[in-house]
Design brief:
48 residues; 5-stranded antiparallel β-sheet; mainly beta; 46% strand
Length: 48
Amino acid sequence: MKDVMIYKNYIGSVHYSTEDEIFFGKIEGINDSISYEGSSVSELKAAF
């Protein structure tokens, strides 16, 4: 996976929805479901 963000040893995926025009992702490698989204890259980073 190449589209990722890393923060304090957490890896988050990065995707873009052309239909909804938002960036979204989820934290990978944990036994829970934590997702985030934003309408810009800076909003996505803040949500992550």
